[in-house]
Design goal:
By secondary structure, the chain is an all-beta fold. It has no helices and 15 strands. Strand 4 and strand 5 (55-58) form a beta hairpin.
């Protein structure tokens, strides 16, 4: 079997959280990074505070994977399902929320993300701040800026985009 870029060792498994210890082969020192996975069941919501103070709320059937600390130029997290986020401002270190075929890049903002693994679409609703989407579909990657007060819906198979205006106060 081929060797992966990183190796993970499961340390503990709880009904809600899983923690993994990951060693980055590219790092000069073998400093382990502890990754935490938070899941919600249907009918359940959870709030998660990231190492930088950002807060993410997971809705029904959602999953978030994040490190114990953010190192380097970006703050990387992985998510599926529906996640409402209030991201701490840090223009020097954008937060990237990666999911199937889409990366949401933010530097400090409030937005809602929805993309379930079984769906071929994703939606980002921007409440405040600025967001850029990098969408990979049909062998191409497209960068899409999202404006406040807009729900941007992306077909992850075709790469087509539809913007819908929303009423922010009622959101």
């Amino acid at each position: 079997p081929q060797e992966a870029d990183t190796k993970a060792i499961m340390l503990a498994k709880f009904p809600v959280y899983e923690q993994h210890l990951v060693f980055d082969k590219e790092a000069k020192e073998m400093d382990p990074v502890l990754w935490t996975e938070v899941n919600t069941s249907y009918g359940e919501k959870k709030s998660v505070t990231l190492p930088d103070g950002s807060v993410m709320w997971l809705h029904n059937g959602s999953r978030l994977i994040f490190p114990s600390q953010f190192d380097g130029g970006i703050r990387q997290v992985y998510g599926f399902g529906e996640i409402y986020s209030e991201i701490a401002k840090d223009p020097e270190h954008p937060l990237i929320l990666s999911s199937s075929g889409i990366n949401v890049k933010v530097t400090g903002t409030v937005f809602n993300f929805r993309s379930f693994q079984e769906d071929s679409s994703a939606e980002v609703t921007l409440i405040d701040g600025a967001v850029e989407l990098d969408v990979s579909a049909g062998g191409r990657t497209k960068r899409i800026p999202v404006q406040p007060g807009t729900a941007t819906q992306v077909d992850l198979l075709e790469g087509t985009v539809r913007n819908v205006s929303i009423d922010i106060p009622s959101y």
